[in-house]
Amino acid sequence: MVKQYLDETNSILEQLINLTLEDITQIQAANHKHVSKSVEEKTKLISDFQIAKKNLDQALVELSNQGNNKGLDELLDDKDKEKLALLKQKLNTLHQKNKEYAKLALIIKNFYDNLLNTMFEQNGTNNAYGDQKTIPDSLFKINV
């Protein structure tokens, strides 16, 4: 069972990494239509990963309990150890790619916030988060 759960978690992580790389490419190409579909796919994959990870954890605990006080290093064969190392590597890769994606998303958010502030009076926007109150007259006022 451990082998099956390791394969499943690694597969899901690979899909998440590929989607994140695709999202980074789409953001860099200013193709934002792709975002909502990608968010839905990632949400499903994250849910699947949580279930697979929980199953893996349970299988490892059961294996450990049957091992008569042996550590996981002694209980797992070389293939399982390699798959665990691959799982760790993929988690680190996903973490790094998500950081890169988050930086790009923050740049886009700041761009649109600045554009909004430029289009309307500086004290008339809500800065996308309600920090400042919207003045209805400022929405229709044109500065020439």
Automatic annotation (TrEMBL):
UniProt xrefs under Pfam families: FlgN (PF05130)
A Gene Ontology BP annotation from the UniProt entry: bacterial-type flagellum assembly
Alphabetical keyword list: Bacterial flagellum biogenesis
Annotated InterPro entries: FlgN-like, FlgN-like_sf
Family as reported in the entry's similarity comment: Belongs to the FlgN family.
Known function: Required for the efficient initiation of filament assembly.
Name by which UniProt lists this protein: Uncharacterized protein
Species whose genome carries this gene: Campylobacter ornithocola
